[in-house]
Amino acid sequence: MAASHVALSVPVAAAVALLLLVLPRAAESYPWAKCNDTAGDFPARRSSSYLASINLIAATLPGNASASPDLFATAEGVGAPPDQVSALTLCRGDANASTCLACLTQAFLDLPNACAYHKVAAIFYDSCQLSYSNATIAAGDFSTEKIPIYGFRSYANVTMEQARYNRLVAALVNATADYAARNSTRRRYASGEADFNAEFPKVYSWAQCTPDLTPASCRSCLAQIIGRGIGFFENRVGGFVRAVWCSFQYSTTPFLDGPMLVRIQGTSGASPAPAPAPSPAAVVPAVNQTPPAATPTPEGGRKYSVPGLVLIILLPTIAAINVVVGLCFLRRRRPVTEAKRTYANYSTEAEDIENLDSMLIDISILRSATGDFAESNKLGEGGFGAVYKGVLPDGYEIAVKRLSKSSTQGVEELKNELTLVAKLKHKNLVSLVGVCLEQQERLLVYEFVPNRSLDLILFDTEKSEQLDWEKRYKIINGIARGLQYLHEDSQLKVVHRDLKASNILLDANMNPKISDFGLARIFGRDQTQAVTKNVIGTYGYMAPEYQTRGNYSIKSDVFSFGVMVLEIVTGRKNNHSYNSQQSEDLLTMIWEQWVAGTVLEMVDPSMNSFFSESDVMRCIYIGLLCVQGDPGERPVMSSVVLMLGTDTVELHAPAKPTLFARKGGGDESGVASGGMSIVSLEEQS
């Protein structure tokens, strides 16, 4: 079946939503998903009509794209208003039909989970990409529309002939982009290679546009993302920018199948001297101009001589200079708004220090923002200090954690927060804005989350009415996805160790954000558990193996998640006793009601019975699976996310939760069995 192409005459506003969907590999894990928060959410139900429209497209579009000569297909306005969905699918030009079909089929399974309830979203794999929107998907005018880009640069550096290498990469990428724009017979796709030196004998490149673009639009799109992105890849062995309508990539290791369509024959000697800078009008090369000194290769591609590459080199060189100058200017000024940017993090200590330095905020700014830490601006106080609301001069709202000067534990928490939160980027984790280490103050600056913590709403008899079942289900899903990122998908494998309702913050749309990484620990990829003699946590949320033996792992976080799920469904705290004669806690009560078949009687009455019984039963089921005594029987978080998102996953019967009584009556702090010290980190109000 032929691909159905998108008309370019629709309003540019529809295109702008998807122009925002570009991928940062350094900040996100594979596959690279991007969710647009500005387009609104669809209902948090598996049976929602918007999701049904997505599923309708999923039934046909992968087959349409894989059967198309261009490996490209779109769908427009599928479903009934107002839940119509448009989608765009594209496979990389070197893919075959079976690879394309498998990749796109997986994309339709992954994207609704990766961007739960978002109406506009995109996901990118090595071999394919999928985008969908509640508006018509249309390419904009790339000569006037500015495409936001966020590229990836690999951790390794080229160490020999760096200047020549950068010029060679720029030339290769631009030559490949030029070929892709003209290559209407090969899916607006081009592959390329260039000779370099003994350290890296070859450099490989790829460029591609959606086939519905004209040659001029394709080249304009690629010129923009290359010109604005390649300066950030200086000296790096690889990098890419992915966007909905055009993408490019290069690497010193091969990553494409099939012949190279563009070849650049480099030399081992010096690179050509730079030519005078062109006028601004010459920045984007004319797509109809034949590249200089190009000769066809036996494979049908082009070979570029180094002297003929001067014009091609100029574009990225000038773009890189502009980027460097701009960054230096911003760094020198260091405005307050710079603190709100997301900084990519890399593996070397020097780069970590540079990132930290870029996040430093002057104490005077924070004193002014918080009214000199006025009591009226205090949001709460915990074991490590107080948290204050602040407003920066540009109106951006922040939350400032002021670590206690007398707390020795605060030093360790500071290290953990800086090490972890600055490296972890996910929509369900709280974002670190900056840090201040002046005048004996230790201040961590976060995004302000207006609805504060989950416990303040969930366990309040009046405020809990704000949490209908849709919101609760959305919160459960969001926490699960944040944990999956920490455990399985981020650059680091992180065990939080202090998951509880008071550490789940809620933004203006009731999206959950996991916070407080002071007790978190980084695991090696092959590490399964660790042991500590200093058990620190909160009664009711700690897994039994952690509370009694000091063993912790990702499965101890899963236990805490299960407790929160049951708390969210019932509106009750697990660390309270509800039966004074039997001293039963929440887990025991739910288990007994589950066995008796009356567990729905435990649902929070503040929802006034307005909830999906099947969804509630599934959440209770998952909660009980997560709080099983044997850590090996608890599911991993990716399985939990899958179970929350579909009715087709078969669930095994959970075992009775293993519970350990705490000493100290109704207090939340005390000594656990085994004599280990337990410190409560609950906020003191």
Number of helices: 17
Arithmetic mean pLDDT: 75
Regarding CATH, which class of the largest domain?
A: Mainly Alpha
Straight-line N-to-C gap: 64 Å
Can you count the beta strands?
26
Give the tally of structural domains. Answer: 4
Alpha-beta content class: alpha+beta
Q: What proportion of the residues is helical, as a percent range?
A: 25-40%
CATH T-level fold name of the largest domain:
Transferase(Phosphotransferase), domain 1
Descriptive notes:
With 685 residues, the chain is of the alpha+beta class. The chain has four domains: 12-133, Killer Toxin P4, Chain A, CATH 3.30.430.20; 152-325, 2-Layer Sandwich (Killer Toxin P4, Chain A), CATH 3.30.430.20; 349-447, 2-Layer Sandwich (Phosphorylase Kinase, domain 1), CATH 3.30.200.20; 454-678, Transferase(Phosphotransferase), domain 1 (Orthogonal Bundle). The protein is 32% helix and 18% strand. The chain contains 17 helices and 26 strands. The chain has an eight-stranded mixed β-sheet, covered by helices on one side. It has a five-stranded antiparallel β-sheet with strand order 1-4-5-3-2, covered by helices on one side. Strand 9 (238-242) and strand 10 form a beta hairpin. The longest helix is centred in the middle third of the chain and has 24 residues, at 310-333. It is globular, with a radius of gyration of 27 Å. The termini are far apart. The relative contact order is 0.08. Mean pLDDT is 75; it is low at 1-28, 267-354, 577-583 and 661-685.
